[in-house]
Amino acid sequence: MTPRDGGLPADPGLLPLTAAQLGVFHAQGLEPGNPAYNTVAVMEVRGPLDGELLRRAVRRSEAESGTFDVEFVERPDGVFQRPVAPGCSTWRELDLTGEPDPFAAARALVDADRSTALDLTKDALSAHVLMRVGADHHLWYQRSHHVLSDAFGSVLHSRRIATHYEALAAGTEPAGEPLDTLRSLLAEEADYRASEDHAADRRYWNGVFADRPETASLAPGVPTGAAPSALSASAELSPDELAALHAAGRAARAPWTVALLAAVAAYLHGMTGAEDLTLGVPVTARLGARSRNAPGMLSNTLPLRLAVRPAEGRTALVRQVARRLGELLTHQRYPYDELRRDLKLLGSGEQLYGVLVNIMPAGSETAFTGREAKLTTLSGGPVTDLNITCHPHPDGTGARVAFEANPHRYSPAELEVHRLRFTAFLTRFLAAPGDLPLARVDVLTGAERATVLAAGEGAGGVTPRTFPDLFEEQVRRAPRALAVLSPTGSLDYAGLNARANRLARALVARGAGPEDLVAVAVPRGIDALTAVVAVLKSGAAYLPVDTGYPRARLTAMLDDTRPLLVLTARGADDPTLAPGVPRLYVDDESAVAALPDTDPADADRRAPLTPAHPAYVIYTSGSTGRPKGVVVTHTGLAPLVRHQRDRLRLRPGSRVLQFASPSFDASVWELTTALLTGAAAVVAPSERLVPGPPLAGLVAELGVTCLLLAPSVLAALEADVLPEGTDLVVGAEACSPELVARWSSGRHMVNAYGPTESTVIATQTGPLSGRTVPPMGRPVPGTRVRLLDAALRPVPPGVPGEVYLSGDGLARGYLARPGTTAERFVADPFGPPGTRMYRTGDLARWTADGGLAYLGRADGQVKVRGFRIEPGEVEGVLAGAPGVGGAVVVARGTGPGARQLVAYVVPAAGAGTRPDPVAVRAHAGERLPAYMVPAAVTVLDAFPRTPGGKVDVRALPEPRFGTASAHRAPSTERERILHEVFAEVLGLERVGVDDSFFDLGGDSVTATRLAARAHRSGLALTARDIFGHKTIARLAEVARDTGPEAAAPRAESLVRLDADELDELEAQWGTTL
């Protein structure tokens, strides 16, 4: 062993593997049945060819390098390769001219061999088959495992074989220098790994990917392992297109290959919207003279990170690609697997790139003098996502572009669509002026654009009408039909109309009318429903006020809206809340007794009422720390009602539960779906709406036939609570396949989607069945759905895009927030002049059948148990807590009821003590609705940050849920039962009987699940019990054995806190899935 062999094992018979070989060896070991690492090429040779001379030429070339004459050995101290006598590769000659179709027979042989996985310690890893398919017409099949050689080495080997063949045929010595050896290849790599260059390369790559950017791919999900076989397709670039690539490169002072890389990056950006993206770029990793002449496995594939800016043009992008590619080539020897190890990706299968772009150099064909030879690479190695390889024709007459796709991520149809779409995009990309913004170069073809825009059009033909007009039509149609029903009373349509008319006239007498706002603060029941109808009949819009909300929240809403009146009940009024606003009491008969009970007409109102006037204002979370009121008009009510009536089979006799909190627009759906279709609204106090036995009893008692519930509420119910035939609408958060399977059988279950900014529902599915992920459905009448990229271009089917909504149901905007309104409600470039569209912040994609699939949020907004929350609002409140210098709020967990809001805070500068997590949560609880109070507050010394200075959310530690300092195990039977229930519901192994349910991560939804689970175990608990007693020890003292008397909680057992918490159990409609 010589000094230059540094790093070789002491046994002179064993050699180490290159880093690239090790990567392939271990990858094959993880999937021993995967043939993806077989590299395969077929050379078609026309002209006389002597098979025996070719066999001898193969052996001579193999003997020169020694690369293909090795065996692999696994030992306790590692994996090695041992040089062996020449002749390891197999050789066969076949005459297929007698076959009916010689080429078909050859393809069958090739396909069988290439799809056979090889055992790296037992099988022959290199094979050659010479197949005669006609007179002086041969196919030379070459297959070697990637552990032996990369594409560069295989080309060296093939060329040297041709050189030896010509020498043997002429009886002369082969021309040129002999191939360098495997040992020299290993020595050069050993020198590199011991050099400062290796350390510098490592610093470079770890710096580029320090912030671990997300991987952009043309297929959903993150690319992982290689597929056993790849789908393939190809396209031809004409000489003119190749010339255009050369011209685009010259304009940026770069080679044409860089222009092609830029085109792929622009296409990936256009398809995904990602501006920070990476492409995989194969490199030879050969910078030394020895390695450039030695076959072997040394190649590397590295991630080329690019910033594609839609406002910049092609020339700027090509220049950036050239600069970044130059850096990559400078540092190309640092192994990709080592970078993944540095970034802690090994073992996860996660890749740093999706699409791989490879450009084969022209002249890589093997020349046989006097013969026409054409080389086709059938497989260049593993395909994890999508590989795009360009093969320039040797004569410069264009190029072939090969597309290979992982069939686990792409279907044949999807690959074909990408092939057609990319080649069409490439033409437009190269034809555009160099400075034309990339945002103006369409990725879609004209036909695709028309198709996706048409898919987003809801049915038309529904004339907008006002709520009073629609309601009074039902009164005239069936005045004696049941309109509203409660456990303590009922009203028919005529009676409800008369009461609402008198109250509406009282409101008009006090100045209420179109463009005015009346706050409604009436406890659940018939009076509350009457109050809302009355406000709408007066022409004013109503602002629902949930008196269970924290006072600071209510004060902010009332100060923001400055309502004309507060419509309330004497027993529910808080005179210190908005003390300067006049009151009108719904239970004050003296205020309405003398007023007519006839329908107010426009002549009776302060101004004529039109569908364009506001109907209600609903508050949503605000990103600036201040909630914002959404002003929704009557315009979208008629299309919504028509759609619900037709799809849900609503009719007189149907009974619609009024379950949602009045502060969320699900309550608008419940109101209109009942009273504007001729059905009956079922109302009840909060304690009868608790998921579990109370809600089940109410449904059975009052014959509820139609409900809108969030999946997290359904998860807390027994499957037999809702009878067969029930109309069940789910929304506000993602519904799991398990819930669909559980609840769809025997019921008419549909999934709906809609933000508050579009009248309740924007899209809705047909009936769901089986264990399936419910889609978003299709647009409701009068609604237009656009899926757009960052440049407001329609995205193709299957590609993520942001959801924009337009049409009749669109809200007017945000109350007294012109800037925010202008930011979120933008001009609709695809609709009639003057129309607007709302940017939802949701991501979705078109499915193959024209439906919509929800993908998540595009902005920082989060969804927790159906509630849409701006973390910035919560962060602003937490930052105001004593001793807190800053706060970060994120959502953690998955699944209905499991996703939680958690907070991280740092001490204020100069603070003498660290913030107390319990005190910080208490501070938030005094100022925010409970669903916005983080389940856990974790105190950090400082926030982890990315190199760019932003908080690194992915580096935040797991949240710390507080527990009692001393752990005490259960000691009684009741404590043991509750310990099991706590552990199951919270997903914890260690729970002390003195640990607070809420400090352990519990919240309002999990509290409901805990009560239901305890009930099944024989212990009856109420919401008041859990909120008031919190620990296993205290709950064991107050729990009651289940029995008939424990089926429903008594109203007097509920404390005021429950009004807030119970309302949160009602999923917020008005948001996304």
Automatic annotation (TrEMBL):
Transmembrane intervals: none
Keywords assigned: Phosphopantetheine, Phosphoprotein
KW Transit peptide (keyword) present: no
Cofactor: pantetheine 4'-phosphate
Molecular function, one GO term: catalytic activity
Coiled-coil ranges (or none): none
Domain Carrier: 969-1043
SUPFAM superfamilies in UniProt: Acetyl-CoA synthetase-like, ACP-like, CoA-dependent acyltransferases
Pfam families: AMP-binding, AMP-binding_C, Condensation, PP-binding
Keyword set includes Protein biosynthesis: no
Signal peptide: none
A Gene Ontology term for the protein's cellular component: cytosol
InterPro entries: AA_adenyl_dom, AB_hydrolase_fold, ACP-like_sf, AMP-bd_C, AMP-bd_C_sf, AMP-binding_CS, AMP-dep_synth/lig_dom, ANL_N_sf
GO biological process, alphabetically ordered: amino acid activation for nonribosomal peptide biosynthetic process; antibiotic biosynthetic process; lipid biosynthetic process; secondary metabolite biosynthetic process
NCBIfam families: AA-adenyl-dom
Name by which UniProt lists this protein: Nonribosomal peptide synthetase DhbF
Organism: Streptomyces griseomycini
